[in-house]
Amino acid sequence: MTQTAVHRSIDAIWRIESAKLIAGLARIVRDVGLAEDLAHDALVVALEKWPQTGIPDKPGAWLMTTAKRRAIDLLRRDKTRERKYEEFGRSHPLYTEDDVDLALDGEIGDDLLRLIFTTCHPVLSREARVALTLRLLGGLTTDEIARAFLATEPTIAQRIVRAKKTLSAANVPFEMPAAEEIKDRLSTVLEVIYLMFNEGYAATSGNSWVRPLLCREALRLGRILAASAPSEPEAQGLVALMEIQSSRFKTRADANGDPILLMDQNRALWDRLLIRRGLAALAKARALGRPLGPYALQAAIAACHAEARTAAETDWVRISALYEALARAMPSPVVELNRAVAISMAFGPQFGLRLVDELSDEPSLKDYHLLPSVRGDLLLKLGRLDEAKAEFERAAALTRNERERALLLNRVAACSSPS
């Protein structure tokens, strides 16, 4: 294997293992920022050694063992923490490669869920909680988080740095909060899991359209959370949304990894088990007797697609009404953009275009590639090819995902006047 291939493999391993690694280390050193530093130290060692020695059979265990040795060295050097080091040495012997994976796996109350609740502590602002958790747990870059927030990258980077310092200064314990405290943090935890799933479902950047492992981890955590908070309709709603969206994974990209749009997907290949699970979770949310929140409403929209046997049978009038309710429950320019798409499908592209044009001066959408992409699609349907082409070109310039850029450039070509 070439050195370039090894580095690509290490990058893939890091994306898969980093969250578990940081969570396991945070349980040991009780400091989220320090845990992240130790994890990156282990990554640096891997980048130095693995091109010569080869990638170990259990790379996650290797990284954890290396990071724990670094932790011990650090504690030895820190004279003011000698007592803590002695306690650590007695209670946390070095894992072998065979049992590290077992120690880091688990269900309810596992290290990853503890990490979410730790980084979603009320001592931090909502924005800081979400940004820090996405960085540590989701492995998202500051650029990816910035685009999820429609914010600038330096702003997000500063939030993350300040959040780690705040948690350390406040000595926030690395543990699941008491039952009465869970509810106070639940909305932020749900938001983090939701954004994790979204990044996996449509990657912000890179050469992959989807990141299934990130979606799978978000869904796993969502299921755990819903089981531990059965009376919370939004926990059920989020799981319902993720189950139904996950059912489409086999059809979201072709054999070459290129995107397949929703209306072009082969619905016979959608995973019916995941759809049934999603519909059951949505029924649980509804049965709790409270108005549907943003996640349950999005799940209801996803259910409309899942229940339509063909794209032509989609109930776009109902979807438009659900987006209207979502816009009231969670006001957002992105929700309004999606509502415009639904209205265009239900009542015609001219009505959708009118709504999209009202969003053209929205500052938060200035660099959001889906705004010109949607506008281009509506213009194309209206036969305004030159205008549509310009919008698709702008969208292609704004996106950071290579697969999506190729799709948009294909749409540019489709708008070209025949010679």
TrEMBL record:
Pfam families: DUF6596, Sigma70_r2, Sigma70_r4_2. Residues 185-285 form the DUF6596 domain. Residues 116-167 form the RNA polymerase sigma factor 70 region 4 type domain. It comes from the Bacteria. InterPro entries: DUF6596, RNA_pol_sigma-70_dom, RNA_pol_sigma70_r2, RNA_pol_sigma70_r4_t2, RNA_pol_sigma_r2, RNA_pol_sigma_r3/r4-like, WH-like_DNA-bd_sf. Residues 24-79 form the RNA polymerase sigma-70 region domain. This is RNA polymerase sigma factor. The lineage of its organism: Bacteria, Bacillati, Bacillota, Bacilli, Bacillales.
